[in-house]
Amino acid sequence: MATFEAIGLNLAVGSFFTITSLVMFTAAVHWGFNDKLAPRTWARPKDVIKNVLEGPYYGLSWIPWTLSLSFQQMLEGLPGTGTRKNGWSGKFLHCNLDGIIVIKFHALCLRVAVFASCLCIFVVLPLNVTAPCYPMVSGMDLCSNITNLTNFEQTTLANIPPLRFPSRVVEIDAGGGRIPSIEEIFPDAPGSTWRLYVIVVVAWAIFFYSW
Question: Fewer CB atoms near the end CB (10 Å): N or C, the chain?
């Protein structure tokens, strides 16, 4: 079962390769290995990448630079990426409409990811972690299973007791038995019902934001 220890190991390995990649990118830009980074810049002056990125930490400076680009700049061309005078003259590098559509799609994915991450971390995560389980309502077996969850599973929906419990389900007798009450059909678990409603609202918010 997943635990924070196992996830931490994956995070450490991923962070190592991420930092290594950024360092290698910085070195490639510094030494002018444009053919290893962007083939379109190979036939242009070697400083075209340096002209648009602020050094010396190119591995990090490309992130804010990329996010600050406008679609008009991409269509008209980026100053400093020309074919003459060390990149400051001639035809600049630019994107066609197909490239703009792809970039807009990735920009949408980035906004949705940031929006969903903020809601999940600051709203859903605290609800999952602090969810109580009452043995008198949910039963000893269910609460015992929830207590035995791993430290990672306690941050998920598995830590919230379900609302419909087998001991409270009332079958409708086709021969004229009594009709169960609303409380029996839709049981309410103290401390759980409103949490599930909030999670549903968060899911709908993410859906409409990415519409």
Answer: C
